[in-house]
Specification:
Distance between the termini: 50 Å
Number of strands: 9
Number of helices: 11
Order of helices and strands: HEHEEHEHHEHEHHEEHHEH
Radius of gyration: 20 Å
Strand content: 15-25%
Length: 311
């Protein structure tokens, strides 16, 4: 007779794909809670984020990876390397493809299609088989989806194709079932109530970065980072969080601050509200904006995110 411990399954699933394919939205949907930030900005996810999904006796650690794209800077190269490291170490791989972009004809769609090819070529080199998750199916006619599915499957790097919508949740359960079947038997890696392994200080910084991008994503370049400088527990059970928002140029600072400080105040309020919801207690959030040119070339910034500075 098989015991409960023997019946348990646990493993890692790398979620890879082009920037803005919907990887973070998918991970959040599978976990059932927000563990990875989502914005309009490409390359929002900069490092591996692990979300924990439980289905029956299976615990699946979903590794949300940075997008795979043509790197130009040191940070880009480090992010792409982190994406492939997540794939190489996983028990299963899900390649998320934005079906709408794959069938579109805009310049951004062309870049996305090029990045899809890069993922396929990487899978070919590693000789790894992946699940193809065609995302955003709610935006595409079924006939076009079937043709796209066949074309991509014929590349030979997939052993299963699923059509999903991470946004609406359509057929997400089918994907979860497919992942459970691929997990090896073994004890769970995390407690039954843990949904992510992201440290609270880093989670807080990511939430603030998300709110900044959502508020000023049209005006603000990609070169921005947020660090939690201090985390002070208070006697009443609340927490004071002091954060530094680093921008790369003097001209970026007034964009973040806004007229009379309105923009940063709004960002701080939205971040505080979400942090209180995530942490389950009162939060006092204080933000400072500083210019730090060349922060993307500082070794310490990479170490804090678990990225390889020397790639």
């Amino acid at each position: 007779m098989t015991s409960e411990a023997e019946a348990k399954r646990a493993g890692f699933v790398a979620v890879i794909g082009a920037p803005n394919a919907g990887k973070s939205t998918l991970v959040n949907r599978l976990v059932g809670r927000k563990v990875s930030i989502v914005t309009h900005k490409v390359q929002t996810t900069r490092f591996q984020i692990r979300g924990v999904m439980v289905r029956g006796q299976a615990q699946i650690v979903l590794v949300d990876t940075p997008g795979v794209f043509a790197p130009r800077r040191r940070l880009d190269r480090a992010m792409v390397k982190a994406a492939w490291e997540g794939a190489n170490d996983a028990d299963a791989i899900v390649h998320v493809v934005d079906a709408a972009a794959e069938l579109g004809d805009k310049p951004a769609d062309k870049r996305s299609a090029d990045d899809v090819r890069r993922v396929i070529e990487g899978l070919e080199r590693s000789q790894a088989k992946a699940i193809l998750a065609l995302n955003k199916i709610d935006l595409i006619p079924r006939e076009a989806l079937l043709a796209l599915s066949q074309r991509l499957f014929e590349t030979g790097v997939y052993d299963e194709v699923l059509m999903i919508s991470a946004h609406t949740g359509d057929r997400i359960d089918d994907l979860a079932t497919a992942l459970v079947a691929r997990m090896p038997e073994g004890p769970w890696f995390y407690g039954a109530d843990q949904v992510a392994d992201l440290p609270e200080r880093l989670l807080a910084a990511e939430i603030t970065r998300e709110k900044i991008f959502l508020r000023v994503h049209e005006e603000l370049p990609y070169e921005i980072t947020v660090e939690t400088e201090s985390w002070t527990e208070r006697k009443d059970g609340s927490v004071r969080i002091d954060q530094l928002v680093y921008v790369a140029r003097d001209g970026h600072k007034p964009i973040i601050l806004g007229k009379n400080g309105r923009t940063i105040k709004e960002v701080g309020e939205r971040a505080r509200q979400e942090l209180e919801q995530e942490l389950g207690r009162r939060v006092h959030l204080f933000l400072q904006v500083k210019v730090r040119s060349g922060w993307g070339e500082e070794r310490a910034r990479y170490a804090a995110l678990g990225l390889d500075f020397d790639v």
